[in-house]
Specification:
about 290 residues; alpha/beta; Rossmann fold; six-stranded parallel sheet
Length: about 290
């Protein structure tokens, strides 16, 4: 089957199904000086035919029986199930073949383009933009491109702003004296190292608990303040309580001298032991 229609005159106008009659009126007004044939595969009751002497409406069965029927502009109100039926449609047109395609009919387009051997140009008419297919993808790409352009313009304006002049960081560290002058950031922490420990509370055994331990209190006993006599003792652990099992250390003068221990000479000499030769020879064993 040979086609006389040029590729640029064979177009698909995607639109939503609810607006097909509006788009049909727009196309009929555009080609009002030509003979227009409207073809449908379904019921013709839902189609509103525009007024005009040169406009006719038929279905695929009537078109197949009318062998000599021809037109200048063929408008397919919908796409048929079979691709051969659509090929019989466009064979009746001399100049233009236009298709009104909705979302449900989009799946039938692949078989038609396969049989035709080429793709059909899809053109979206302004004011009838659909929410599906290539037109929706194209619209989404255009919106994304506009957002990227706005973002790049904003970044360019941000780069043109004068930058703040930051002072360079000192290479030398602060001295310890400056750090000490600042004091503590937390008011609860003591700033004086010689201050007395703060009473926190008591543990489960009733023993007082303090924030720090110094020699000012008996921390091993009950936490009471120490007297001057207790502070003057030789060791800070002199008031440590004695527990069961501790052995009392004797004074240095009561230690037994080393001479009281048995000397090494009191041991039996090695000669009192039986000599090795007293053992029975190996050959005497059974």
């Amino acid at each position: 089957m040979s086609l006389t229609i040029k590729r640029q005159n064979h177009r698909i106008h995607p639109c939503n199904a609810s607006r097909k009659n509006e788009l049909l009126s727009r196309l009929a007004a555009q080609y009002d000086d030509k003979k227009i044939l409207i073809v449908t595969a379904g019921a013709a009751e839902q189609i509103i035919v525009p007024e005009g002497k040169n406009i006719a409406l038929v279905n695929d069965e009537t078109l197949a029986q009318a062998g000599d029927l021809a037109c200048d502009v063929l408008i397919s109100y919908d796409l048929p199930e079979k691709a051969l039926v659509y090929m019989a449609r466009i064979a009746k047109s001399r100049d233009y073949a236009l298709v009104l395609m909705d979302a449900e009919e989009q799946k039938r387009l692949y078989g038609i383009e396969t049989l035709l051997g080429r793709t059909i140009i899809q053109e979206v008419i302004t004011g009838f933009e659909p929410d599906f297919g290539i037109a929706a993808e194209k619209k989404s790409k255009e919106e994304a491109k506009a957002r990227r352009a706005a973002r790049d313009e904003e970044n360019a304006r941000r780069d043109e702003r004068p930058k703040r002049d930051f002072k360079p960081r000192l290479d030398t560290d602060r001295s310890k004296a400056k750090r000490d002058d600042r004091g503590f950031r937390d008011d609860k922490r003591p700033s004086n190292k010689d201050s007395k420990p703060r009473f926190i509370g008591k543990d489960e055994n009733g023993k007082p608990i303090f924030e720090g331990k110094t020699r000012e209190r008996n921390h091993y006993i009950d936490g009471t303040p120490r007297s001057d006599a207790e502070k003057a003792q030789r060791t800070p652990y002199a008031n440590k309580p004695k527990f069961f099992g501790d052995k009392t250390k004797s004074a240095e003068g009561e230690k037994k001298p080393y001479a009281d221990k048995k000397s090494f000479g009191d041991k039996k000499p090695y000669g009192d032991k039986k000599a090795f030769g007293d053992k029975k020879p190996y050959g005497d064993k059974k």
